[in-house]
Amino acid sequence: MAEKEATVYIVDVGKSMGVQRNGRSVTDLEWGMQYVWDRITGTVATGRKTAMLGVIGLRTDGTSNELEDDPHFSNISVLSTIKQFLMPDIRKLGDDIKPSQTDKGDAISALILAIQMISTHCKKLKYKRKIVLVTNGQGRMSNEGTDEITKKIKEDNIELVILGADFDDPEYGVKEEDKDSRKAGNEILLQNLAESCDGAYGTLEQAVSELDIPRVKVVKSLASFRGHLQLGNPEVYETAVRIPVERYYRTYVAKPPSASSYVVRSDAAAGEGETGETSAPAPTQKNESRDGNTLTPVRNLRTYQVTDESAPGGHLDVERDELAKGYEYGRTAVHIDTTDENITTLETFAGLELIGFIANDQYERYMHMSNTNIIIGQRANDKASLALSSFIHALFELECYAVARLVTKENKPPIIVLLAPSIEPDYECLLEVQLPFAEDVRTYRFPPLDKVITVSGKVVTQHRNLPNDDLLDAMSKYVNSMELVDKDESGDPSEGLPIDDSFSPVLHRINAAIRSRAIHPTEPIPPPSERLMKFSQPPEDVLQKSKKYLEKLMETADVKKVPPKAKGRKRTREAEKPLSGLDVDALLQQEKRAKITPNNAIPEFKQALSSAENIDAIKGAVNQMTAILEDQIKNSVGDSNYHRVIEALGVMRDEMISFEEPAVYNDFLRQVKDKILKEEFDGDRRELWWLIRKSKLGLINQRESDQSRVTDAEASEFLSAK
């Protein structure tokens, strides 16, 4: 179970916090709230009910706290009691955090109030307690009772963090010139208080500058298997080995939060309970529910229909329980009864059974098929840990890996895993990874890279498709020049791309965008941090160092720039001249193609289009091709001509996109579909339409051609309709 947390944020909202200082474009309050919002949204994103927090406003215009009758606690307001924060709380807090019109209020008194809130909420229970104070140190502070405050903080084991705008921090290199004497005294008071409580004290500049460092979430791993590591059958042989073990993730893919579908909440949806029953809701402003949420999740309703000509509309609704399970075999649904399906289920029992061993040098790393797990001895079982340690050291000394059969739960399919020993100074374990079965292995043959084998079997080592020695040498120098190795202070080489400094851009970028949108719902999403995108581009010094080697490589390899593929109206472009400079058509005195014959339709169709001078000539070639295709469909015995039709349709579609005449193809395809569905091609030709859909030869949409009036949605609907 996750540890309980209780955090109280004390935010200084005094009049002086609304001023921009030292050339900053934001006020002290906005600057400090960058840190506070980051911590609050990070807590809310976890969704944990045990992670609670409260907020106290310091130097507010009014007074709202338990000790408001005491003048020492004036101008201090509890903006939120300790509770689990949700989106409505973030919205409310954003409205409450505004600069006030006064600088009255004691930060030390606010600390006492925060300690009281934590003590009242947590009592003597086990909590992780924390107080964060964000201020600019401009107001009056009393040093009375600091010893009692320090004693109470230590007794309750509260972590104290004090951050100040423009606070002096010699270690970080921040020092404010011409500092006010009151602020200087307040800084000394707060620093002494934090140090006496074993807390943290620092300048706000450092805290804000470190916000762009992605936070790595530490996840408590749960055992994915608890059982026995077996060698032999203990029910038959007394000498069988049986060690209680547990299995945990070693590496696991962290995924960003997935999106959900929501709609605007209506009056009926606002009064709908968890059971799905509707009730008359109380009138709320702008359909807003009592918790301030105007959205409701989309619920999917699935219905099942079967063809029934006697039913209205030709379809009959059936319940899910009345349906039978089937499996797709080609385009046929094969029904399997529950009794027959049970026969195909392999009865297995949970366990990890050793089935063999393999030498380290005989195993290929590409055989890995899963993330890595670790196998350790059963917790609180010294005998199991000792036995597993002996097995691990035996594998290590013999330089072997173990192969085992793993069944994590009863009746689950078995998998074959590889067990490798791992011995570290602080722990020992078996590294486990899944291995493929014979059906999982795909063997592909590729020609060798260092030689060419001719048809007659002759081996050629000098060939135009093989790199020569000069090219290999140039490539080797270029690769070496891009080595990501730095040097430390002593001049020794160090890793230039440490794995601990690389983060997942997708994961952390999405999380940062969600937090930003939660705080500022109407403002644009800020760009990703430079630290997150640091490794998305090669270092500039590496590029400069390798530039001359790259130029040498391009010269040696005789690299030439390929001209871009010409776009636009194909019929208005000049014919591409062959590399030889000879115009074959002119030499052969080829005449313009007048008629397209069915025996050689596709090449003649392309020739007719290449010589077309106007749109009428293009439409004429398409009309001829249309007549040929319709004739092939009508005279097709079964599906004998279907693939020829599909090939011709693909050519026609590509050519019409090139000539920017999508309407010609779209009109033809609509006509073909209509005739297929009406069975006007001498029988049922629905299989041809299935092939057209499979080949994605639908309407030309606006994304493929600017001249098309068909949207993506219309094209998808046309192609999916049966």
What are the defining features of this structure?
single chain, 722 residues, 7-stranded mixed β-barrel, 19 helices, extended
Low-confidence stretches: 268-291
The largest sheet is: 7 strands, mixed, barrel
* Overall pLDDT metric: 85
Major sheet: arrangement of strands: 7-8-16-19-18-17-15
CA radius of gyration: 37 Å
Number of helices: 19
Quaternary assembly: single chain
Basic shape: extended
Structural class: alpha+beta
The gist of it:
By secondary structure, this protein is of the alpha+beta class.
Description:
- By secondary structure, the protein is of the alpha+beta class.
- Helices cover 33% and strands 18% of the residues.
- The chain is built from 19 helices and 23 strands.
- It has a 7-stranded mixed beta barrel with strand order 7-8-16-19-18-17-15. Strands 3-2-1-4-5-6 form a 6-stranded mixed β-sheet, with helices on both faces. It has a two-stranded antiparallel ribbon with strand order 9-10.
- α5 links the parallel β5 (158-164) and β6 (200-203).
- α10 (469-481) runs antiparallel to α12, α14 packs antiparallel against α15 and α15 (615-634) packs antiparallel against α16.
- The radius of gyration is 37 Å and the shape is extended.
- The two termini are 52 Å apart.
